[in-house]
């Protein structure tokens, strides 16, 4: 039985033959992985580029400088200097007068209507807020920047017809590049002329859109902001966290450490796992039926929103916390029990600190889920149009994802970019929360 | 039963299924009579009766799975935390039934301390590791007393010199042998009467093992020690009495010297001469 030379039959030669195939399989597998990751990255990049490309414009808003004479007879005829009376005064006429004085030729009703449409209907509130902040301005002539109406803002950003080049306009290019025939244009020739004149005089400027970050929702895109929704989200998450963390952790500790293992706890466990997969709108319906109809809690309130989202995040927190408790090595429990710690002491002194990073991670994942949740909140009325920034968890409010949904539904061109900008803010918050999760985990993690 | 025997002064007779002298004359610290342990339907310990004398080291030897660790864990009711485990029979500490309903298991474990197979210090500082027991039992009233207890315990465990200047560093940062001595210090910090050691040296190198064995010999002055070991040399070196378990039975028990030089039972003989195990 001597091995013949030239054939593959020694162990080394056999091995070498299979080795090549084994390496090929490994290379193939690695290539699949790289392709999968590249695909995912490409999609992510597309998403981000689209959102950022659409939304970046919303952070800039064009404003017109107006010289406004604040006549006391207009806004404070009885000289009360009472803030409430000042708040109720007619600022629109001040704004209109300042506008008319810029264009003395526009005298007909039609011209003046066109002219008024140039600036935001909310310009009066900008003037009012300035006067309320500093009543000593009454009787003076002040220079103030008010937002341009969103149609014209969009024209200057090049998003709608006539899409003008902002820089070319400033330099005095006279030709307006209309692309639509006269009947289908959004802005009139006269308005285009006014815009051009203001540009030439250097009265229009594109600057940081502070209203986007300080205002609540508005029908006028130029002054619509996310602050109201952000505060609503904050209150909602506060309620969710305050309810779901203690309840979730307590439930996890009981189920994992104290509950007897019998049919009942098995059923509870299965149900908790099932609850994690229940569509969130079902929780919204439950909130509507129980919290609003039965208990009569206020509609559209972050309090109720938080309670509904608590129901939704509880399974996530309980499952993550139980997994964290399970992963604590039994030797630590034995050590604690061995020196005579009671069960509760063993859990609170030793098991819980070790399980905390896992529990916190689960909780923050649950919170991030809650932050992005829309459907259940629609059912309890948090989809209402809320202009005022909520001051407490029982004020009517909306939340960031619902605000995005509302804006995405609005026909105005300017809301498109605001939708994307709001998405950017929401993603920013989510990234922030995940960063906090990582930091907390690092902070609490202990080696053994 | 035990009380009757000591009162009447009768000669102690060994239970019929055990060779040697599982029971002792004179003082008894821990006494087990007809102890049985079941894991679900598995009969892990069968009718074990033995005595453990005070201030002695008693070694439990036997092949893997023979039940020696299971029996050890019955002595401070560590088996309670296993749901399917059931213990019957009579186990007494100083004549008091430890499975009695009136006995507080927390207090029992303070009296019967335990050191485990794998060193398992808490992921806290060295000081906190030792201070934890006295603190939860309220054995100290102020910080100075606590420091005193911690220092004495570390000293008795032969660890003080090595860690004196880094008491605040984590206990998990010590070497394996040091960690195990830290666990011993932690056990003796609550002043137990009995210390159970479940293969305390199986994860250690020979030098660390030698140190622990030396320590066990010293600790015998103040504590009753029960040690489970896989190493027959270790049993021979540190113990005064040895019990040999096989398949849940206590096959033979007696003075260590007798067990290793002149065992009565065939199985014992086979095991100590290395014919099986």
Strand ordering within the main sheet of chain B = 1-11-10-4-9-8-7
Q: Write down the oligomeric state.
A: heterodimer
Compute the number of strand runs of chain B. Answer: 11
Number of helices of chain A: 19
Largest interface: A-B, 22 and 29 residues
N-to-C order of helices and strands of chain A: HEHHHHHEHHHEHHHHHHHHHH
Structural class of chain B: alpha/beta
User: Portion of residues in helices of chain B?
Assistant: 25-40%
Instruction: For the record, give the distance between the C-alpha atoms at the N and C termini of chain B, rounded to a whole number.
Output: 35 Å
> How widely separated are the two ends of chain A?
58 Å
Major sheet strand order of chain A: 2-1-3
Structural class by SSE content of chain A = mainly alpha
- The helicity of chain A comes to 55-70%
List low-confidence stretches of chain A: none
Provide a descriptive summary of the structure in words:
- The complex is a heterodimer of chains A (448) and B (277).
- Chain A is mainly α and 448 residues long.
- Helices cover 63% and strands 5% of the residues of chain A.
- Chain A folds into two domains: 60-208, no CATH class; 227-444, MetI-like fold (Orthogonal Bundle), CATH 1.10.3720.10.
- In chain A, helix 16 packs antiparallel against helix 19.
- The two termini of chain A are 58 Å apart.
- The mean pLDDT of chain A is 88.
- Chain B has 277 residues and is α/β, with parallel strands linked by helices.
- In chain B, the strands form two sheets. A seven-stranded mixed beta sheet of chain B has the order 1-11-10-4-9-8-7, sandwiched between helices.
- Chain A binds chain B through residues 261, 329, 331-342, 345, 349-350, 353-354, 446-448, and chain B through 76, 78, 81, 83, 106-110, 113-116, 118, 120-123, 132-133, 136-137, 170, 172, 183, 186-187, 189-190.
